[in-house]
Design brief:
The structure holds 2 protein chains of 2 kinds. By secondary structure, chain A is of the alpha/beta class. Chain A is built from 11 helices and 10 strands. Chain A has one domain: Rossmann fold, CATH 3.40.50.300. By secondary structure, chain B is mainly α. Chain B is built from 11 helices and 2 strands; from the N terminus they run ααααββααααααα. The chains are: A alpha/beta, B mainly alpha.
Chain lengths: ~240, ~290
């Protein structure tokens, strides 16, 4: 569904990605782990178009999308819940969700009715968002904002979801909740690329994983293998 | 308060509504792109000239208005394309100079095409005053007030009730995140410049029958609108109306009691006070953000 081949990208003169390759098959959860500064978030941002790659290919559902504007890539079926959640603070929870479905809703009137089913689904998944649907999203707690960011990405009915650091800055009990949601989404057949600082949790939920180091994929495999790989244990899984 | 004072306040406030409308044009583009068209006054003036020309071809008033507004939209889009987009793409502040230059071109163009003289702007709306509780007000002045309030209500409803309007707010809140939702920031900024041009054209059409039309008709107007936008803050549509009404009344009282030479003073004093005491403006929102 998503195939990245030999990707090069960076900020200005500094190259961050130096030949990254990875693939996410339909209906699977793939984790991308590695130390800070390895290029995980840069990979995500390059896939969704925020950074223009200087080399390599990105195929979304078989079609090349490298170099496209982010809004164009989003219309082609990629939803990116970015690092730091990036909810639209002054807008209400429900408006945030509706905007998540922007690409397939009428622009002026009747959009609420057309999105009703999807809103219902997201509210089932995150009852707390339903309680606060009229509240300005900037006033939500960090965990709630993360849930909103995930819900907003799902509203697009995307082919592929990119989820960047969902546990960042959250209390452990909230992180448990977020990963429980990811597990449920996996059961429902989502195609997901997950970047996560907490390698242990990411490997628990993933079908396949890539370990990134200095802009390249250093190790890859199914989580059961990686959990036994001495290099991975030493670097990321700790005791 | 005696009637003379009320009369001064009312007629000043009506002019203040025009300042508010031009200030609202600044807000529209600032919201999406954090840029404003410093040639907004020239847009007001050019739209007024085009509308006058349309009227002189014998077009009836109610058909001239859509024509003038259409010109405003096209001119707004032109400013965005020619003066703003490249600068924003390079994260440069070049749009400031570019929009000023486009404005100067506008003045030269107007002088060459229509000449330097001020011309009257014919209107079918009656100018004989009607008495309201001892205050006299002309139907023409009422039409200005109605026009300003109507267009602002329509645009605010668009922003709050339609999905495209919410997208407008989303780009304003977080441009990158809006792009990830499939909302094209470039197109949203174009839309905001188009709307801003529309608002400028309406201001030109509404104010011309009162002030006459000339190449420099809007230079004082835009200065005051800028004061209103800064004093009210660049976010609140409601704020510019309040501050506009206040400044308009204050000017009219000043020119009567202090002297007409002092007419421009209150706007500048308010601008300086706002910049010194509260640079975000009276109605400027503190951004709610949690990380």
């Amino acid at each position: 569904m998503l195939v990245v081949t030999d990707l090069y990208a960076g900020y200005g003169m500094s190259e961050v990605l130096m030949g990254t390759s990875l693939a996410v098959k339909k209906g699977t959860v793939v984790a991308l782990i590695g130390p800070n500064g390895a290029g995980k978030t840069t990979t995500m941002r390059t896939i969704s178009g925020g950074i223009k790659p200087t080399g390599g290919k990105i195929l979304l559902d078989g079609a090349p999308v490298q170099g496209f504007e982010p809004s164009h890539i989003a219309r082609l079926g990629l939803a990116h819940a970015p690092e730091g959640r990036k909810v639209f603070g002054p807008l209400s929870v429900e408006d945030n969700l509706l905007l998540g479905a922007f690409t397939r809703l009428p622009r002026f009137f009747g959009f609420r009715a057309k999105a009703a089913d999807d809103l219902e689904k997201v509210y089932d998944l995150f009852p707390r968002l339903k309680e606060r649907y009229r509240q300005a999203s900037g006033t939500l707690s960090g965990g709630e904002q993360q849930m909103l960011a995930i819900g907003r990405a799902l509203m697009a009915r995307p082919k592929v979801v990119l989820l960047d650091e969902p546990s960042m800055g959250l209390a452990p009990v909230i992180v448990d909740e977020v990963f429980e949601i990811i597990r449920r989404l996996k059961e429902s057949g989502i195609t997901l690329l997950l970047v996560e600082q907490s390698a242990k949790r990411a490997l628990e939920v993933a079908d396949y994983a890539y370990v990134m180091e200095r802009g390249r994929i250093a190790v890859e495999g199914v989580p059961q293998e990686l959990q036994k790989n001495e290099r991975v244990i030493a670097a990321y899984l700790g005791n | 308060m005696d009637h003379a004072v009320i009369q001064l306040i009312v007629s000043g406030a009506l002019m203040g509504l025009v300042y508010a409308l031009v200030a609202y044009g600044f807000q529209l583009t600032y919201a999406t792109s954090k840029s404003i068209n410093f040639g907004q006054g020239e847009l007001v003036m050019l739209s007024a000239f085009v509308s006058l020309t349309l009227t002189n071809t014998g077009l009836p008033y109610y058909l001239m208005i859509p024509g003038g507004l259409l010109f405003g939209v096209i001119a707004g889009l032109f400013v965005e394309r020619a003066g703003v987009r490249l600068a924003l793409e390079q994260k440069s502040e070049g749009w400031i100079l570019m929009t000023i230059i486009l404005g100067l071109f506008g003045i030269s163009a107007a002088e060459n095409i229509w000449g330097r003289d001020d011309r009257p702007f014919p209107t079918p709306i009656p100018t004989e005053p009607i008495q309201f509780f001892g205050v006299s007000i002309t139907p023409l002045e009422i039409s200005v007030a109605v026009g300003v309030v109507l267009i602002m209500v329509v645009i605010e409803l668009f922003k709050r009730k339609t999905l495209l309007g919410k997208a407008f707010e989303a780009v304003s809140a977080d441009r990158d995140a809006a792009e990830l939702m499939g909302i094209s920031a470039t197109r949203t900024i174009m839309l905001s410049y188009g709307l801003s041009g529309l608002v400028a054209a309406l201001a030109g059409i509404l104010v011309s029958p009162i002030t006459t039309v000339g190449p420099t008709m809007a230079s004082a107007l835009v200065l005051k609108a800028f004061s209103v936008a800064v004093v009210a803050g660049l976010e609140s549509g409601f704020g510019v109306v309040i501050v506009g009404l206040f400044l308009g009344s204050l000017e009219s009282l000043t020119s009567f009691y202090v002297g007409s030479g002092w007419r421009e003073a209150p706007g500048l004093v308010l601008l300086i006070l706002a910049l010194a005491i509260r640079p975000t403006g009276i109605f400027g929102k503190a951004v709610i953000r949690k990380v």
